[in-house]
Amino acid sequence: MKKEFWLERWERAEIGFHQNDINPYLQQFWPTLKSAQGGEVFVPLCGKSLDMVWLREQGQSVLGVELSGIAVRDFFTEQGKSPTHTHTDKFECCEADGVRILCGDFFDLRKEDMANVNAVYDRASLVALPTDMRERYAHHLAEILPSGTQVLLVTFDYPQEEMPGPPFAVSVEEVRALYDQYAEIDLLKQVDILDREPRFKARGVTRMQENIFLLTLK
Q: CA-to-CA distance for 109 and 90, rounded, in angstroms?
């Protein structure tokens, strides 16, 4: 999947993936992360997620990365913030009130960018990527994050042949295959969500689960 796909989605305001409420699994499980308190939380492919606002309200500083400048602009505008702007060779950095978003490509991130991160929240990143990119994503994430970082990961699982992604189906077995060499993996919860997702049901999906994981990097 090329960068242009996501840039065009934001340009056309086709952002059905954006949630207008705080994710309930974030609220339920975030307090259980041992490493989260007082550190910097990384939110990959963050869009304009309100979950970043909730994390900031818990006293966390937040670091996001987002390809679309429209998403970054809209986040700060909708929060009534005027961010500062700085530039590196790969990113435009926009920052206000403890939230810092790097506008650019996730795969350009380096260890130095993640130096203060000790927790990650991934609700919309792994599931946004097709099969051939997910292995690269998991490897890069593990490579740039400090040892001991904890990741709260939310995935969808459904018969992929019934609906083209995104969001893509990522099974429990695939999460274990992607991350087993990099992290301790705990499956926290599985929830059948098809009845509350009529848009997917209307597209012919016959089964859909959300799986919530806690990963602790080795």
A: 8
